[in-house]
Amino acid sequence: MDHDRAARRALDVCPGSTSYSFPRCIPYARQLPVELAANHLLEVPASISPRVRELAQSWRAADPNPHAIVGRALDFFQTQRFRYSLSPGEYKRNDLEEFLFRRRLGFCEHYAASFATLMRLAGVPARVVVGYLGGEFNEMGHFYLVRQSDTHAWCEVWLPDTGWTRVDPTNVVAPERVNLGFESFLERSASASEMSPGFTRTLARKPFFAKIRVTWQTLNYAWDTRVLGFDAEAQQALTNEIGLPDLRPVSLLFLSAIIAAGFVVILATWMQMQARAHTDPVQSLYARFCAKAARLGAPRDPTEGPVDFARRAGRVLPQESERIATISDCYVGLRYGQGMDSAMLHRFTHEVRLFCSTKN
After folding, report:
1. How far does CA 302 lie from the centroid of its chain?
2. Is 152 a residue of the active site?
3. Please, are residues 155 and 167 in contact by the beta-carbon 8 Å criterion?
4. Residue spans per domain, the chain
5. Is 108 a catalytic residue?
6. Which of 53, 71, 256, 317 has its CA 20 to 30 A from that of 95?
7. Is 290 part of the annotated catalytic residue set?
8. What is the pLDDT along the chain (360 residues), one digit of tens a residue?
9. In this structure, CATH architecture of domain 11-192
């Protein structure tokens, strides 16, 4: 970007689910068309109060040089105790006087709009520019994440020697908002006012959760660009990379179905293996024992403890009462004891298998 904010080369930006391409821009002409300045860039609402008009005209009367007018306007915002706030309350429509002389409270849109109006009243062509300020670089995916909270508004004034020149009145009122970015500004504001920035925001800054957040952002970015943005051009590039430049759509669909089916099989197998790896063998064996007891006429109540159940099941199945008691003792020892006893686990497994082999 040059000082006119024009791109010197083509840019491709993917801030989120939407990709933007910025072609190379031709720098602005140094001469402002007279009809453009007269018809558009000096227009102001008719409802502006005399007090606001007098303020701008006093700057021009002191020195008509546009640079001097801009400097006086910035001094006004810096010295008159203006404050930056995301909750300034509601202003009446076109009530610029209330903002400039009484409340002096607002966010970037208030400052940009009021500054542009004052510049036009003083005879300096001006316009409001709305865009984004800042962004977060994702080192894993090598892209910038630009959020809606990064929106910002500033001014551009036309100066004879430099053309369109950026002037940000918010920078003189709350420079930390411009220099730190929105997220850091909120955190510093909360700290300065002895307000908690919130448990969720604090937790998100922890290294472990920050890594999870970056990974999730990268996955979302890959989904947006590689799946949702998978058009015919991207499809052709992919087939060329894998050595299938002449693959027809039907063949590509068939190949994709095979790959997807294989992926599903692999995923299902992996999930099954994970489930087996995390299964408690003691609990699994005891569940088999309870299921067999239920088939033999002694179902276990969900609220019934293992000792009480063993006593009741022993009365219902007297021929298996001794084995039921042994299974219960082993289960209680393995489940609630100090540690896993391999000998007890072996006996527990053996007794459960013998019990489950009992004919109904």
Report:
1. 43
2. yes
3. yes
4. 11-192, 281-356
5. yes
6. 71
7. no
8. 444 444 444 444 544 445 454 444 445 545 555 545 556 789 998 889 999 999 999 999 999 999 999 999 999 999 999 999 888 888 876 689 999 999 999 989 999 999 999 999 999 999 999 988 877 788 877 777 887 778 889 999 999 888 889 999 998 998 876 554 445 444 444 444 444 445 455 555 566 677 787 787 778 777 776 666 556 666 666 666 666 656 566 666 777 788 888 888 887 777 776 665 556 888 889 999 999 999 999 999 888 889 999 999 999 999 999 999 999 999 999 888 877 788 999 999 999 999 998 776
9. Roll (3.10)
